[in-house]
Amino acid sequence: MRVLLRVLAPLLGLGLAAAGALLVIEVTAAWLLGAEISAGGTSIVADPGQQGVLVPWRAWRSGLEALTWRSLLMLAVCAAVALLGLLLVVLAGGARRRDIRLEDPAENVSVTTSPRVLARLVGQRVRAQDQVASASVTASARAVKVVAVCRGEVPEGLPAGVGAGAGALLEELPLARRPRLAVSVRSDGGPR
Amino acid sequence: MSSRSQRALARSRTGERTGITLIGLATLTAGVFGVLVGLEVFGQLRSRRPVLDPIAVDLLRTHALPARLVAVAVGVALVALGLLWAVRSLRPEPRPDLYLDPGAAGATVRVTASAATDALAADAESVPGVARAKARLVGRESAPALRLTLWLTDGADVRTVWRDVEDRVLAGARSSLGIRVLPTAIRLELDSSTGTSRVR
Q1: What is the pLDDT of residues B48-84, one digit of tens each?
Q2: Nearest residue of B to residue A176 by CA position?
Q3: In whole angstroms, what is the distance from residue A13 CA to residue A10 CA?
Q4: Rounded to the nearest 5 degrees, what angle is found at the Cα of A38, between the Cα atoms of A67 and A32?
Q5: Which of A18, A152, B129, B137 could bond to B113 as cystine, CB 3.0-4.6 Å?
Q6: Given an 8 Å threshold on Cβ–Cβ distance, is B188 in contact with A111?
Q7: Is A68 in contact with B47 (Cβ distance < 8 A)?
């Protein structure tokens, strides 16, 4: 999301600038040309050749004057615009940093790591246990979720063992905030 | 906990996020308003009016000069704001040089950003458990900060590295450069070259 934000921000900026430039050009042109035309004794609207400098806004105007709010086209456009706005809000909200903070080792020094690193560390610890065949870990600053897989039936005490191992690792790390730990162990079926 | 060292963690995207949120909220409000008008929430009469209302057009026509002035001003403001935003978000993050305290001779010593960061990265790589290190100076020239990314070897003790980097590298750098405070953000990564992982 942060990458998308980095791409989108300058594009939106340039889009705003372009829209502003068009507005200035069109308004100024209509103003000056309109003054000339009315000095010549004709009104602006009556001039069929005058369509705008870069944007054919006079054609748009007649279109918009014929279009009512309740028309299907207008409703669809408004819904699309609302959806676009919602997407932008969600994008900006989702582009926050997901770093995991560690304790500061000294004043003026702050340490962070990524969720991937924490997940890998926990995963290494969990897989080191004999009965665990494989494990998948997802981590964030708030919660660590471990799913361990063992062959055959789940031995009694394995979930507690996996939980204790992962918990001990979280204790060893100088995490600023200890994440919640959720452990589940399942069997891969194995020989019956 | 220092806010300057925290700010050095990564380039701030707050400006971009705020701008996009505001544009998104404006777009969302406009769209929802349009849908509500069309669905006769503000009355049947209103929903049957044309989108470009003749009453509004007449109002603009009777106040042509102020309307034009406002439109031009809004346009100029949009151009300035949009260009400023685009330039700001495209501008590369600065790498400030370090200026050391003048000695007895009164001369200022400048350490270029690359010289300082090369030395710091080499120092950090000498810490046991650190496979690679990358250093970068960020912030303003008057208030520089250090961003240090460390790739740890497999099996490295995070707590030991966490303590050693401050004791050996940062304290040494501060004393050899003669600066009292160098806000530092350290980012710990695992060296990806050592084995594959099934963990996301």
Answers
A1: 888 888 888 888 888 888 888 999 999 999 999 999 9
A2: B1
A3: 5
A4: 80
A5: B137
A6: yes
A7: yes
Contact B28 A82 (CB under 8 A): yes
Same domain, residue pair A22 and A88: yes
- Which one of B90, B123, B140 terminates a domain? B90
Tens digits of residue pLDDT in A60-69: 888 888 888 8
Structure tokens belonging to residue A58: 């006079």
Domain tally, chain A: 2
Q: With an 8 Å Cβ cutoff, are B85 and A9 in contact?
A: yes
Residues A123 and A88 in one domain: no
Neighbours of B9 (CB within 10 A): 20
Inter-chain CB pairs, A–B, below 8 Å: 276
- pLDDT (tens digit per residue) in A141-164: 889 999 988 887 777 888 888 888
Which residue in B121, B125, B178 sits closest to B148, CA to CA? B121
What is the residue range of B54's domain? 3-90
Nearest CA in chain A to B15: A9
Would you say the ipTM is above 0.90?
no
CB proximity under 8 Å: B 35-64 to A: 35, 37-40, 46-52, 54
Cβ pair A14, B82 in contact under 8 A: yes
Judgement on whether residues A64 and A10 belong to the same structural domain of the protein: yes
Is the entire prediction scored with pTM above 0.90? no
